[in-house]
Structure formats: C-alpha cells, structure tokens
Amino acid sequence: MTAPLTDDEVGKTVVDAEGKELGIVAKVNGSRAYVDPNPSLTEQFMASLGWEGDDEEDYIVTEDMLESVGEEIVLRGEI
Question: N or C: which end of the chain has fewer CB within 10 A?
Fold first, then answer.
C-alpha cells in the first residue's frame, strides 16, 4: 500500500505502469485524486503553485489504484 494522497500531490504527473503520461493531479479530496488529462498551461501553472481545481474532463484515481507516489504518481498495472 502506498502513502495516503495529500494536497502535496497537486501538480504531479500521473503515469501508467509503462510510464505513459496520463495527466496531472488537479485536486485531491480524501483518498481520491482528480487527474486532468489535458491540462492547459494555466492549469499546469496553478497546480504547480498548489492551487486546486477540477473540471468535467478530470478522472478520478483512488489510493488502491496506485503503485507509488513520489516525484510522479505511478498507477498499478493490474487496474
């Protein structure tokens, strides 16, 4: 099990098990991260400042889907 998700994950890149970039964390709410698959430059800048935001195209990643959390967030291969 990985460490719990925190607001520190906002702005981190999310990748799949093969390392393919899937988006950035736009917002964290409890054990869920809202991942923006197509962040604009403005959204990337806001996320780098730790400012949370979400929109309709974001998808949800839960803690049980995570392989690791570090400089980037890696999803498990068997999701």
Answer: N
Q: In terms of DSSP H, where are the helices of 13-54? A: 41-48
Q: Which residue has the tokens 């604009």?
A: 40
Q: Is 1 helix (H, G, I), strand (E, B) or coil?
A: coil
pLDDT in tens, 9-62: 999 999 999 999 999 999 999 999 999 888 777 777 766 666 666 677 889 999
Is the model's pTM score more than 0.85?
no
SS3 31: coil
Set out the domains of the chain in order of their start, with CATH numbers.
7-75 (2.30.30)
Confidence of residue 1 (pLDDT cuts 50, 70, 90): low
Strands (E), 5-57: 13-15, 21-29, 32-36
Q: Which residues contact 13 (CB under 8 A, 6 or more apart)?
A: 21, 23, 24, 72, 73
